[in-house]
Specification:
31% helix, alpha+beta, three-stranded antiparallel beta sheet
């Protein structure tokens, strides 16, 4: 199973580790969307920036 992740809030003014996490998921600007595998690493990234993204099952 995979997860579709969409950036819904800006990265401006966020901590550098949150920005780096978003970039590692392929999210650079509001509205960017990516499909990631449903594994432990992805879940950790989702938890770190959960207040900035919207997650759906793909």
């Amino acid at each position: 199973m995979a997860k579709q992740i969409t950036l819904v809030k800006s990265l401006i003014g966020r901590k550098q580790d949150q920005i780096d996490t978003a970039h590692s998921l392929g999210l650079k600007k509001i509205g960017d969307s990516t499909v990631q595998p449903d594994n432990v690493q992805t879940e950790g990234k989702i938890n770190k920036i959960s207040h900035l993204i919207q997650v759906q099952d793909a």
